[in-house]
Amino acid sequence: MGSGQVTDSSAPFDFQGKHVTVAGLGVSGVPAAKVLHGLGARVTVVNDGDDERARTQAAELETLGVTVRLGDGATLPEGTELIVTAPGWKPDKPLFTAAHEAGVPVWGDVELAWRLRGRDGRKAAPWLAVTGTNGKTTTVRMLASILKAAGLRTAAVGNIGVSLLDAVTGDEEYDVLAVELSSYQLHWAPSLRAHSAAVLNLAPDHLDWHGSMEAYAADKGRIYEGNRVACVYNVADKATEDLVREADVEEGCRAVGFTLGSPALSQLGVVEGLLVDRAFVEDRQKNAQELAEVSDVDPPAPHNIANALAAAALARSFGVPAAAVRDGLRAFTPDAHRIAHVADVDGVAYVDDSKATNTHAAEASLAAYESIVWIAGGLAKGATFDELVAGAAKRLRGAVLIGADRALIREALARHAPEVPVVDLDRTDTGAMLQAVQEAQRLARPGDTVLLAPACASMDMFTNYNKRGDAFAQAVRELGA
User: Fold this and answer.
1) For 353, which of 129, 253, 364, 378 is 20 to 30 Å away at the CA?
2) How many CA atoms lie within 13 A of 246 on its CB side?
3) What backbone torsions phi and psi does residue 453 show, to the nearest 5 degrees?
């Protein structure tokens, strides 16, 4: 880690009378436009799409006096002094090229929220921030549960679906915020300075947006810049520790690791079924603090224990007592479709991890069970499956493949697990899930787990991963009816 004092570049910005262009409507654009208008800015919204939803949103904003241009997200409005962009807009869009040439700064909604915190004279709540390829939402929700157990006013916000802008400009006051940040959001948040932050893991994802793995990792690493207390990294993922080493942080900020093994100095880890802390205790050389039992983590799958340790590390960096870590983990309820146990039928467990939409997430899910009938497939998004299949081969009783890109998984199975029976369902309609579950039941033996961990996106067959998981759960219920 770099040493020395980091200056906060988020200087006050007077929006009164400023011409601000908001790029994109949707979940982040509409709140940003409303907030900026309320601060006295002259707001123009530009949006690529011109569908019914966009027209409805545009009509709402136009009643406030906001100008909206639908179907033209490429042209920089004349007189623009600042752009606030939706996080998903790619950096190479012509709008941003024009802004760069004109010397116009570009912020994301997270950057805007960071600049606005404490603006009305209230104390600005510190941010405990989390990013990573997988596990972000679960970790942030665990963290919020732990903070609440400590009696702190908090909320899980950011990429989790709760607007950061609402959190920093609304009426409710917070002691601390648990903030989930995507690589997109971090790219557009140059002056963010968290109290403490964690990168859970790094695996290839969204490379079409970032352009390269190096650029993706660099944007993830922005979360550590200017950290005041702790940079939390994954001992099992060296790339996360490398990002800590490269970060420029405040004097005294510490590197804190989490591991599924016994923790070394300045780490949190697992010892004889206990989550323990050797980072935020007195005399770390000799002492460790018990935080919780592994059984307090729901579900106690390895990757979820890692999520719990990361959440605990961030909470402990904020001074939360050990008992609150235990109580918060016990109170936490996982979101649907995240390694969720659906039912046991004839001695076989059926588990829904529809949220495993990439190979990294599926790898963690497959590692949680000993004997698996795997339901996989969907839209591969450019992924390859050799490493995933090779690592899981010994655990596979069988595989049932669905979706548009199932051939890629079938070919990887043929190369790395040729003895594993494979059922290839040549259909992409939603009814395929019932057949997939029936085929999985035929392959399974008592003691096995039928695991929906698709390693692919869902949009070839379902509206989203939630609908895919719902279809799986319904099919399982029909088995047991």
Assistant:
1) 129
2) 13
3) -140, 80
Distances (CA, A) of 65 to 43, 68, 141: 8, 9, 37
Beta bridge partners of 343: 350
Q: Give tens-digit pLDDT for 392-432.
A: 999 999 999 999 999 999 999 999 999 999 999 998 888 89
Tokens linked to 362: 């599926």
CB 439 within 8 A of CB 400: yes
Residue type, 135: G
Tokens 């908001």 correspond to what residue? 22
Stated pTM of the model: 0.85
Q: Specify the pairing of strand 42-47 against strand 67-70.
A: parallel
CA distances from 306 to 40, 234, 260, 262 (A): 45, 8, 7, 13
Give just the sign of the alpha carbon dihedral 359, 361, 367, 368.
Answer: negative
pLDDT at 254 over 70: yes
Note whether 255 and 244 are within 8 A (CB). Answer: yes
- DSSP for 104-142, written as a single string: --EEEHHHHHHHHTTTTSSPPPPEEEEE-SS-HHHHHHH
Q: At residue 395, what are phi and psi to the nearest 5 degrees?
A: -95, -10
DSSP labels, 276-298:
EESSSSSSTTT--EEEEEGGGSS
Identify any residues that bridge with 273 across adjacent strands, giving them in sequence order.
none
CB crowding 271-301: b at 16 or more within 10 Å, else e: eeeebbbbbbeeebeeebbebbebebbbeeb
pLDDT (tens digit, 9 = 90+) per residue, 148-200? 999 999 999 998 867 899 999 988 999 999 999 999 999 999 999 999 999 99
Contact 452, 351 (CB under 8 A): yes
User: Can you name the residues that pair with 255 across neighbouring β-strands?
Assistant: 231
The predicted-structure confidence for 212-248, as pLDDT tens digits, reads as follows 878 888 999 999 999 999 999 999 999 999 999 999 9
**What 3-state class would DSSP assign to 340?**
strand
Mean pLDDT of 68-81: 94
**How far is residue 270's CA from residue 262's CA, in Å, rounded to a whole number?**
5
